[in-house]
């Protein structure tokens, strides 16, 4: 038996802003854009990983979620405490410069970590934490 990651989910409050960030800034492909019961799911992924996707979904993406719970989820998303994704990159500094230039919220500038990576971090337009790691050079 083999097990592989297929999809992970990030809540976003504005799919058009999310698409502009993930596609135009990070260079991910938009692989799907589906609406259902007044909600929207957009699937993005790296051209280098055709079998792994990030699904950008509404906060509380269940049509049966109560209005009170939807409000709580929106508040948590605004605080940036719901979810995050870690990426690898071959050039942390170049990626940092490009993402910073886009106006994204910088959380951490490129830093050499004691556990063997150089990494940086940003928040996407919805507040999700995104970390970009490059293996340290020997």
UniProtKB/TrEMBL annotation:
Domain of life: Bacteria
GO biological process: L-methylmalonyl-CoA metabolic process
Keywords noted in UniProt: Metal-binding
Span of domain VOC: 4-135
Gene Ontology molecular function terms on file: metal ion binding; methylmalonyl-CoA epimerase activity
UniProt keyword Metal-binding present: yes
InterPro entries for this protein: Glyas_Bleomycin-R_OHBP_Dase, Glyas_Fos-R_dOase_dom, MMCE/EMCE_epimerase, VOC_core
Keyword Repeat applies: no
Name of the protein: VOC family protein
Species name: Streptomyces cupreus
Organism placement in taxonomy: Bacteria, Bacillati, Actinomycetota, Actinomycetes, Kitasatosporales
């Amino acid at each position: 038996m083999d097990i592989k990651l297929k999809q992970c989910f990030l809540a976003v409050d504005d799919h058009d802003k999310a698409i502009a960030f993930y596609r135009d800034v990070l260079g991910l492909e938009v692989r799907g854009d589906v609406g259902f019961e007044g909600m929207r799911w957009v699937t993005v992924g790296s051209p280098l990983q055709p079998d792994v996707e990030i699904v950008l979904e509404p906060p509380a993406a269940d049509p049966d979620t109560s209005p009170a719970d939807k409000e709580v989820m929106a508040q948590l998303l605004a605080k940036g405490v719901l979810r995050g994704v870690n990426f690898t990159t071959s050039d942390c500094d170049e990626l940092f410069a490009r993402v910073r230039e886009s106006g994204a919220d910088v959380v951490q500038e490129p830093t050499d970590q004691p556990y063997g990576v150089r990494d940086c971090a940003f928040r996407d337009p919805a507040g999700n934490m995104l970390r970009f790691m490059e293996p340290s050079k020997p």
